[in-house]
Amino acid sequence: MFYVIGLGLCDEKDITVRGLEAIKGSTRVYLEAYTSILMVQKERLEEFYGKELILADRDMVETQSDEILKDADKEDISLLVVGDPFGATTHTDIILRARALKIPTRVVHNASIMNAIGACGLQLYNFGQTVSLVFFTDTWKPDSFYDRIAENSVLGMHTLVLLDIKVKEQSEENLARGRKIYEPPRFMSIPTAVSQLCEIESMRKGGILSPASTLAIAVSRVGGGDEQRIVCGTLDELSQQPEEVYGEPLHSLVIVGKRLHHLEAEYAEAFAARDSKWRDVASSIYKCEFD
Amino acid sequence: MFYVIGLGLCDEKDITVRGLEAIKGSTRVYLEAYTSILMVQKERLEEFYGKELILADRDMVETQSDEILKDADKEDISLLVVGDPFGATTHTDIILRARALKIPTRVVHNASIMNAIGACGLQLYNFGQTVSLVFFTDTWKPDSFYDRIAENSVLGMHTLVLLDIKVKEQSEENLARGRKIYEPPRFMSIPTAVSQLCEIESMRKGGILSPASTLAIAVSRVGGGDEQRIVCGTLDELSQQPEEVYGEPLHSLVIVGKRLHHLEAEYAEAFAARDSKWRDVASSIYKCEFD
Q1: What is the pLDDT of residue B72?
Q2: Chain A nearest C-alpha distance from B1 (Å)
Q3: Contact residues, chain B, for A109 at CB < 8 Å
Q4: What is the mean pLDDT of residues B63-85?
Q5: Does A86 reach chain B within 8 Å, measured CB to CB?
Q6: Does residue B277 surpass a pLDDT of 60?
């Protein structure tokens, strides 16, 4: 059996009992190497699971799937992924490959940011399509996310914006010299995300995002107990918070849609940034009728 | 500490290690009584968790939250819910009440249908807002879901349709006589759901749903190993399958949006109903360019 097991969002204890049993019964256990986005290191997972983990970067999962799947028709092999196996990064390729090889497969689901974002108080029902925001460079500013946010916005729906991470990046010099030396991982911060969103708004002028009157909610480490951060306010307010307000990465951002219900606004209000105009804007611009 | 713990989708082993630890350390553990939508009974949960569970129906969670929260400032109290605490049914009311009472709260996330639906092969990114479909009666056919599906459809987005369940229903006679005797739980089947969708289409005539050329995917017991069912085809095809094809409840349905990518269509094709025109329709109507 080939198991694809979601680890959930934070640390070694977010795995399900079913997932843990599958790991313990597996002869090989691969860990997809986005580990930097979990709150813990590989060694701590290994100790807790009682198993050695084989690091498999995204490239390996995509191009060397036959090596991962080797003998999975006779033994149990597990692939561990952060969040859920069908979350923001899907694992359909390797499952299709297992299917072609007639290897039985079982997916062990878990929380991912795609559903845990409900912790911010907005109803999952009212979210439209999800978008990703990548780091801009001087010459590359992909902006298709803006059209998606606009589509959601016109209908009043919320938009979950997933922020870029860069892992295993090489400097131009190291790349040119063929040296496999990687830069430290980079995670997009909330102020950077807001700045990029507003930069595209000022170019496209669709009237979709307004620094002073578009509400947004920043989250990080959802489900991570004391490490969880949820901060809401206008885009301007969020861009002006000191970075420590947002805690450790990974960060995500929600653009609040105009169908905002007053119960959603009231729940989220507990997370309002200091001196935020959250309630004023929810009332005057979003037409929330508070009790 | 007041814990709100997601149980995931299927059985006693879908709980996370963190959730299980919280249960074991709690002096009282409530189980929200939608248990019929889990695949297992309360007794099996109790045996596995090593704890007695206090049944709390939805009404009790909403109106008697102070009883549930009693002493949670001094002891650990847990409330167990199916799926994720912020899934289709949210638990913001009781968390707000805990907040008002200054009781520290921790949510333990888990998979819910809102993210596990990715198992059907459609990208979660491409889903629009989620809708609920309730059982029609002769005199009550609420159809606002149609507008939401239409909004998603115009943009090419997929729609997750959650199907009604009726638990703790009383017959008119028992209700009139004040007898607290409840009917057996009812779960909407896929053919019923398709029939209701097409009934509203034929009344509203928005051209959003077509029995012969709208693709849909039925799922049940996602993550439930051998009990999981995923069946795809046109609406007509899904309505004509014998009910046993869909396995045990709870069922959900996805209306496929026109932005369907050929990789999504190829992944889902393995779940096509017998003799389904899935690929033909994906190619001719949805313009998927298969390799």
Answers
A1: 97
A2: 12
A3: 8-9, 14, 111, 115-116, 119, 222-223
A4: 94
A5: yes
A6: yes
Residue of A nearest to B15 (CA): A16
Query: Is the model's pLDDT at B29 over the cut of 90?
Result: yes
Mutate to test the interface with A, among B125, B159, B226, B291 (most CBs of A within 10 A): B125
Q: CA B19 to CA B107: how far, in whole Å?
A: 9
Q: Give the separation between CA A260 and CA A247, rounded to whole angstroms.
A: 26
What's the CA dihedral at B65, B70, B71, B72 to 10 degrees? -10
pLDDT recorded at residue A63: 84
pLDDT of residue B38: 67
Q: pLDDT tens digit string along B220-275?
A: 999 888 899 999 999 999 999 998 999 988 899 999 999 999 999 999 999 999 99
From the list A226, A229, A232, the residue with the least C-alpha distance to A264 is A232
pLDDT of residue B37: 63
Decide: B127 and B158 in contact? Cβ < 8 Å: yes
Residue of B nearest to A95 (CA): B267
Look up tokens 């050695």; give the residue.
A52
Distance from C-alpha of A30 to C-alpha of A21, rounded to nearest angstrom: 15
Confidence class for position A148, pLDDT limits 50, 70, 90 = very high
Kindly give the pairing relationship between strand A28-32 and strand A77-81. parallel
Which among B107, B123, B129 is the nearest to A119, CB-wise?
A: B107
Question: How big, in percent rounded to 5, are the helix, strand and coil portions of chain A?
Answer: 40, 20, 40
> For chains A and B, what is the number of CB pairs under 8 angstroms?
159
| SS3 of residue B125 by DSSP | helix
- Confidence bin at A289 (pLDDT 50/70/90): very high
Q: Give A2-111's CATH code, choosing from 3.40.190.10, 3.90.79.10, 3.50.50.60, 3.40.1010.10.
A: 3.40.1010.10
pLDDT at A37: 63
Q: Which of B5, B129, B230, B254 is most worth mutating to test chain A (most A CB atoms within 10 A of its CB)? A: B129
Q: Are the CB atoms for B37 and B163 separated by under 8 Å?
A: no
Q: Where are the domains of chain A?
A: 2-111, 114-286
Residues in chain A: 291
- Judge if the upstream peptide bond of residue A250 is cis by omega within 30 degrees of 0: yes
- Chain B positions touching A90 (Cβ under 8 A) are 118, 123-124
B35 pLDDT above the threshold of 60:
no
- Choose the closest CB to A115 out of B14, B87, B270: B87
Q: CB distance from B40 to chain A under 8 Å? A: no
Shortest alpha-carbon distance between residue B257 and chain A (Å): 12
Q: What is the pLDDT of residues A23-58, one digit of tens each?
A: 999 999 999 876 456 667 889 999 999 999 998 887
The highest-level CATH class for domain B114-286 is alpha beta
pLDDT band of residue B183 (cuts 50, 70, 90) is: confident
Q: How crowded is residue A143: how many other Cβ atoms within 10 Å of its Cβ?
A: 15
Give pLDDT, residue A34.
Answer: 64
Peptide bond into B250 cis (omega under 30): yes
Please, is B203 exposed, middle or buried when counting C-beta atoms within 10 Å of its C-beta (0-12, 13-18, 19+)?
Answer: exposed
Which residue in A21, A85, A124 is closest to B86 by CB distance?
Answer: A124
